[in-house]
Write a structure and sequence with these properties.
The structure holds 2 protein chains of 2 kinds.
Chain A lengths: L3 E4 L1 E4 L6 H4 L19 H4 L22 E4 L11 H8 L4 E3 L5 H9 L9 H12 L6 E4 L4 E4 L2 E4 L4 H9 L3 H5 L3 H9 L12
Parallel strand pairs in A: 2-3, 3-4
Antiparallel strand pairs in A: 1-5, 5-6, 6-7
Chain B lengths: L4 H9 E4 L5 E4 L2 E4 L5 H10 L9 E4 L14 H17 L2 E3 L9 H7 L8 E4 L13 E4 L2 H10 L1 E4 L3 E8 L8 H12 L7 E6 L1 H4 L3 H10 L7 E4 L3 H7 L25 E6 L6 E3 L7 E3 L13 H14 L14 E4 L7 H11 L9 E4 L4 H9 L2 H8 L2 E2 L21 E4 L14 E4 L2 H10 L14
Parallel strand pairs in B: 3-4, 3-6, 4-5, 6-7, 9-10, 9-12, 10-11, 15-16, 15-18, 16-17, 18-19
Antiparallel strand pairs in B: 1-2, 2-8, 13-14
Classes of the chains: A alpha/beta, B alpha/beta.
């Protein structure tokens, strides 16, 4: 993962965009992670007949090539479905900038290298305006310095250390955690027998 | 030093600190369903990993299965159901599938089976895992990558949340239920108002709720963004866990699973229970609700352009007019079910309104008991007869069904529903479907009336 993310940004000012809207359920009946790009924002992007809705921002030039979203409050609320993040990544998004994200969505994004810089409402509105300008140019998110540069402004964003580290370093949390196997076993050894769940088959 | 219940639970499950600022926490018990787990198992296969402790997991079929009949309604859902069974068989994990009396919606099954006791840490690939806070257990939803992580390590990488206390004191008025309490809390705190927080509920109106009501409240706490919801474990919580299939687990009694007196919270909200009316949601976010005797909101002068646009969008989607009385809103369908409100207590509450009455002509009314066990209990009590005689479609199988419409229970474009579920998002119960959230008794009242109705005007079986 590069330490900077560059790309065109699109404004998506709706508040409370939930994971049902990001990835409608008809795309969830699957046992793989793949093939979710078409499902992403499907009801916003396409009409009942499957034709692109011309009034939706991501169907308009130049925002159809956007790889960064500027989003409304509480983006990613609702269901835990990681399919929402997989689909956004498969559609080409590398980051979404907002004032706050739902917790499970935030963690899912980190696992998949989708950056979610958190900014103040004022900064978000400023970035929203810049993204809405068709000649606005590229945004640059510097994960290391926690800054976003767009047009002639550079603004700070928040990200916790562990997420920042995960985005820069990449890697696999499951394999990394298994390096603590002895520590986990030691913790388990301290549990009484009746604290160890055994589900009846 | 005084500690919150949340801090006690995190401290008790902390395995170690990690260099990047996160910690590893131990997961006592992990629940899986058929739709958020397949890719976790394939992740294990790709990495050549085993399940750390297979007996600490339970898999349940609930999200995609049909409830009209046991057989899968299509090949895609069949594939998901068979995939989970095969993965569990391969890894030696308990599997409660279709036809098993223990099957049902995961968050209804787990308490029924005695698999939640105070002091536990429970994870599940489902956002409504906050339900277990009703027992003084730390439950929270995780994504599929984290499901893989729990399977392989029995732990999660975790960041301690901030804490919020919501105190609901006073006596509830007639017809006001746990569902109305949590809908009021979501309205006051806001959808997303508790992002980054663990919420602890306190106050006399919480303590006087039975376990089913407490579960309804903790369940929907995720709709305000809470990653965890907790209530002090009291005798009722211990009593409920005792005498069930897994009651040998009742040994997390290492400490008092309640907040210490004087524990400090980052944020505190106070709500007067007496001021809560039966609520219905009018919009497309769970915080958009009004009392049943109220009106659909109108644009006011102090609204920002953004708030005005959001109101307009919600009204357009819902097909409502600003200022109209909500009791005049006609419904097409009524749905009683979901991990929020499908327990035996919920079915009894709805049945007490329905007894001796008929569903209004043209209203499609469905009830899906939360679990097979709950359905059998309800049938033993004769509740199925009350629902059937009123004109409800009493489903023979259990699952999430029309709460999220992942099976064949899909509302049509423009269809308006009175629903005992948890989310009124755009498209949640079907593309273009219009959901009004409310308590099960209020759904029953709406089904009878043919429009949203005030349950307080109905004489129930108990009087």
């Amino acid at each position: 993962m590069p330490k900077t993310i560059k790309g065109h940004a699109a404004p998506l000012p709706l508040a409370n965009v939930d994971t049902d809207v990001i990835m409608p359920k008809r795309f969830l009946i699957t046992i793989t992670r793949e093939g979710l790009a078409d499902g992403t924002f499907a009801d916003l992007r396409f009409d009942d007949a499957g034709a692109p809705r011309p009034d939706f921002i991501l169907n308009q030039t130049p925002w159809n090539k956007a790889t960064i979203l500027i989003v409304g409050d509480n983006f990613g609320c609702g269901s835990s479905r990681e399919h929402a993040v997989w689909g956004m990544a498969q559609l080409g998004f590398t980051a979404a900038i907002g004032t706050g994200f739902a917790g499970i969505f935030y963690d899912n994004a980190r696992k998949n290298g989708l950056a979610l810089p958190i900014v103040t409402p004022e900064v978000r509105d400023q970035l929203m305006t810049l993204a809405a300008d068709p000649d606005g140019g590229e945004f640059c998110i510097n994960i290391e310095t926690r800054t976003i540069t767009a047009s002639n402004i550079t603004v700070p964003f928040q990200i916790d250390g562990a997420t920042q580290n995960a985005l820069i370093r990449g890697g696999d949390d499951t394999l990394d955690t298994l390096e603590y196997a002895e520590t986990i076993r030691a913790f388990e050894a301290g549990l009484t027998d009746k604290m160890r769940v055994r589900v009846i088959k | 030093m005084s500690r919150t219940l949340y801090d006690k639970l995190v401290d008790a499950h902390k395995v170690c600190d990690l260099p990047d600022g996160d910690m590893l926490i131990y997961v006592d018990f992990h629940i899986m369903n058929e739709y958020t787990s397949p890719q976790a198992f394939s992740g294990l296969d790709q990495k050549g990993l085993n399940v750390w402790r297979p007996e600490a997991h339970l898999a349940v079929i609930d999200h995609v299965n049909a409830t009209r009949q046991r057989d899968p309604h299509d090949d895609a859902s069949k594939l998901l159901i068979e995939n989970l069974e095969a993965n569990c068989s391969k890894h030696g994990i308990a599997f409660y599938g279709l036809g098993d009396q223990r099957q049902g919606i995961e968050h209804v099954v787990v308490p029924e089976q005695g698999l939640v006791v105070p002091g536990m840490l429970i994870a599940c690939g489902d956002s409504h895992t906050t339900t277990y806070g009703a027992y003084g257990a730390l439950g929270f939803g995780i994504g599929t990558s984290e499901v893989e992580h729990v399977l392989a390590t029995q732990t999660l990488r975790y960041k301690r949340l901030k804490t919020m206390q919501v105190v609901v004191d006073g006596d509830l008025g007639p017809g006001v239920t746990a569902k109305d309490i949590i809908m009021k809390v979501v309205q006051v705190v806001g959808a997303g108002g508790a992002n980054g927080y663990a919420v602890e509920f306190a106050g006399s109106a919480i303590k006087t709720q039975g376990m089913a009501g407490r579960m309804t409240i903790c369940n929907m706490a995720v709709e305000l963004g809470a990653r965890a919801a907790l209530m002090d474990a009291d005798d009722a919580a211990y009593r409920m866990a005792a005498g069930r299939a897994h009651s040998d687990l009742l040994h997390f009694d290492t400490e008092e699973w309640s907040a210490d007196p004087g524990a400090k919270y980052d944020k505190v909200f106070h709500i007067d229970a007496a001021q809560i009316a039966p609520l219905i949601s009018w919009g497309t976010s769970p915080d958009q609700s009004v009392p049943i005797d109220g009106t659909v909101p109108v644009v006011t002068r102090d609204m920002t352009p953004k708030a005005r646009a959001a109101l307009d969008r919600a009204l357009t989607y819902m097909g409502l007019v600003a200022g109209q009385s909500v009791q005049d809103i006609p419904i097409d369908s009524a749905f009683i079910g979901s991990c929020t409100n499908s327990r035996i207590e919920d079915l009894r509450a709805a049945a007490s309104v329905l007894k001796g009455r008929k569903v209004a002509e043209g209203v499609n009314a469905i009830v899906v008991p939360g679990s097979t066990f709950t359905r059998m209990q309800a049938e033993a009590e004769g509740l199925d007869q009350v629902f059937r005689e009123a004109g409800f479609d009493w489903r023979p199988e259990s699952g999430c069904s029309m709460c999220l419409a992942m099976n064949d229970d899909i509302a049509m474009d423009g269809e308006r529903l009175a629903s005992s579920t948890n989310r009124n998002f755009e498209g949640r119960q079907g593309r273009g479907a219009r959901t009004h959230l409310m308590s099960p008794a209020m759904v029953a009242a709406a089904a009878i009336s043919g429009h949203l109705a005030d349950v307080r005007t109905f004489r129930t079986e108990e009087g």
